Amino acid sequence: MIYSGKAITVQATDDGIAELCFDLQDDSVNKFNALTLRELKEATAAIAADTSLKGVIVTSGKPVFIVGADITEFGALFGASEGEIADQILSTNFDVFNPFEDLPIPTVAAINGIALGGGFEMGLVCDYRVMSETARVGLPEIKLGIIPGYGGTTRLPRLIGADNAIEWIASGKEQKADQAFKCGAVDAVVSPDLLREAAVSLLQQCIDGKFDYQARRREKQDPLKLNEIEATMVFETSKAFVAGQAGPHYPAPVTAIKVMQKAAHMSRDDALREEAKGIARMAGTLAAKNLIGLFLSDQLLARSGKHLAKKAGKVERAAVLGAGIMGGGIAYQSALKGTPIIMKDIAQAGIDLGLTEASKLLSKRVERGQMSAAEMAGVLNKIQPSLSYDSFENVDIVVEAVVENPKVKHAVLAETEAHIRDDAVLASNTSTISITHLAEPLKRPENFCGMHFFNPVHKMPLVEVIRGEKTGEEAVARTVAYALAMGKKPIIVNDCPGFLVNRVLLPYFGAFMGLVRRGVDFTQIDRAMERFGWPMGPAYLSDVVGIDTGVHAGAVMAEGFPDRMQYDFKTCHDVMFENERFGQKNGRGYYAYEADKKGRPKKVVDEEVAALLAPVIDGNETLSDEAIVDSMMIPMCLEAVRCLEDGLADSATDIDLALIFGVGFPPVRGGALHYIDDVGIDRFVAMADELAAAVGPLKAMYLPTEKLREMAASGDTFFETAASGRK
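Request: output the structure for the sequence above.
Response:
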């Protein structure tokens, strides 16, 4: 044994080859924490001191290679000054990674599973890379609001060319083995069982002089082979395109390109200095703070969900009631992720619709090369269509997804309960109806809860698991387990009108309707909110969700919270609904919809809408985009505060995650409660009070709670670290 640590071991073979193996103790994955970095430095020194060694292969003792830097430690570093961050990053590169790259013997990485961020950068440090055909590599740092920091912007463009490196780094996408090989990021792709053997073979050829590893190494250490004109064309064109794609709130992709451009004609070490400066600049941005916080919160949610799911055991078989678009989507997602499911309806037409929906989604995966036709058939075989309750005695959980009508749901749920095991869980996919109310006809209400999927099921990650007054913890645990098995992010909430997401979202739409009433053009509102970071503005979002759905949800919320969600004026939503302009579902809403070249609905301005809305407009106000954003965000954020104070969710983190994963709240903003912290609670309260005095009938939506006023007065925040003032 040449070196033995808690994260890394180095052993020599009889033929002079050393195997450096990453295998972090007491962890399921390898990652670059302080311990691993220290041991890599020590292991490298031990290899350099052993003159009998002829080469090194780098392997992993786990199912994955290295997942990247330990974000918990990395994030803590970002609290330092920009200069301190740059010095720390540079020290790691010069003291840990460069010495390994500069070993006097050839090195080969054997990449299995995933190698992301620092994990892939470790592979880039090696002279050659062999990759399992099932592995994935990539530099996803921009998704955290930062740029690669362990040599990614330096070594990757020198290996695969500036244009390819820009695409990899600016997108942050994971790359499959075939693409990595095509670009030259890896030197060979083999089946998983041949990975180590292939790495050793390649290394031996380097030792035997068949490959010039030193020449290969110099490619990464020398300046890019681009003249000034070529460099300008590549980098300037890319900056313009990426800036347009990323938007103003995500500076990291453009910063990465600028770093690569400035370092293009530098040596390795000078290029690394530019990289360190770049990541240090990004570390202080609001984007990095919130995106790293989101990542850590998501990890915490996953761990807590898995812990709870262990108490329930695995869901072996499921069923869904109602085989429409939603039921078909649930069946598809369940089968795709491996849980067989019965799809029941009362009519063959419903069954056909559900199967068509599942088949359509699977066919798209085949078209994109994500699965074979045989794999598609295997997934479809996991969906059992049924017009009866046959085989329901064998299911662990049943999801009811019939029409959003309490009487219909009552009848279906009571009927279903009689056909399932006493220990089976019954869940309702309702978006508005009280779970406590739906449980009234059930004999075993402790086995009943809400399981609210968001549409479309296959795209939206959130599932609200709703606890009614009589819901037992076993039912909650099993529903969470099933949601996780489906690849979803379950968040547990307590019962109330609209539950969590819709309750917070409806004041957002209320603010929109108030602005339209005051004479603000809805297209300007859409543009302002999209510039703020929303994937679509409120009018467009209403069209996508369905105006009829929005009106129904609004009626439920008005009944539940009449003081602030019941309006004494006719709204623009009412006008759309009365004129049967339901949105994308029938091609007419706030916008008209035409099919694009790929057959997808494309919004266009409809001149008729202005005339339709004219009777409900009571004003002619002109507002700045900032004023629109304030008017839209404050009611939503205040409702999130009320949900926290009411104990609707377990934590502020859960509320923020639910909004990001459920309605597309801008991730760069961190969520509604993070947003209040970033604005400053005292400033937010002052803004809310100012608007409350100006919005007339919507005043109640803009009034801060007494507890929020107390937090403002005492300087408290919802989260431990908060930025001071808006950025």
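The chain has 31 helices and 20 strands.
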